[in-house]
Amino acid sequence: MRRLRLAKLCPGALDGRVNMRGIGIDIGSTATKVAVLNEAGELVHAEVRPTGFSSVEAAESVRTFLEESGCLSQPHAIVATGYGRVAVPYADKVVTEITCHGKGATHLFGADGVVVDIGGQDTKVIKLKDGKVAKFIMNDKCSAGTGRFLEIMANRLAVSQADMARMAREGTPTPISNMCTVFAESEVISLVGKGEPSENIANGVIESVVARVATLVLQMPGGSYFLTGGLCENDYVVERLGARLGSVVATCPEARYAGAIGAALCALDL
Question: pLDDT value at position 87?
Answer without folding.
Answer: 93
